[in-house]
Design a protein that fits this description.
This protein is of the alpha+beta class. The chain has helices spanning 13-24, 36-55, 76-97, 151-164, 170-174, 185-195; strands spanning 61-65, 105-111, 115-122, 199-205, 209-217. InterPro entries: BCKD/PDK (IPR039028), HATPase_C_sf (IPR036890), HATPase_dom (IPR003594).
Amino acid sequence: MAEENPMFKIEETPYLNDFIDRICQLRNGIYQDTNVVAHVEEAIADASVQCQKYFGEVPKVNIHDKRKQKHFIYIPEHLHHISFELLKNSMRAVCETHPKNLKPIDIIIVDTPETVTIKIADKGGGIPRADMEKIWLYSYTTAVDPYGRTRKELFALLQKEAQSAPNREMLVALKNIPMFGLGYGLSLARLYARYYGGDCNIFSVHGYGTDTYVYLNDLSKSNAAIIG
């Protein structure tokens, strides 16, 4: 198990706070016919680029679309970012646990009249029980930057992207920062899901793998906006 990185220093948190504040204030378009599979596929492609860059290989990702209804009203940018962050975690876990025999990642998409549920299942070794209470902290990560950059240097990159990107391009900027090591990705994905009344839950078997469930509300049937 990788050594746990220290919590944020006080001078580092403004970079993250500014970045998250601007993301949460985005007003992206709500689409009447959000193509869930297409946006998940785009997230797979973007996460694969980063995974290839850091590990030199990418695990196969299988999509199993079990939806009965193909029309879903949602914000595509939010769907993409949630999927992107969760896939980065699964890809990293698989590459670190099975570097010589990459195990595939399975995505199952199902729906009800009110919701879409996305399950991301990996065989990346799982999460120790002692760490489960920490995984939602913005300041928690077990990752070590492969290029040896310090947390201060990583946060400097985050600050640069946050300051230079116009609000409408913040989600594009997220693709340009390090794949891991900042400790905000998982928490931010859940924040996105909860913003409109959905949620994100993780069930892990240490020594085997992790199943992540994302619940998204059809925005034509929900007015919920919850943060926290």
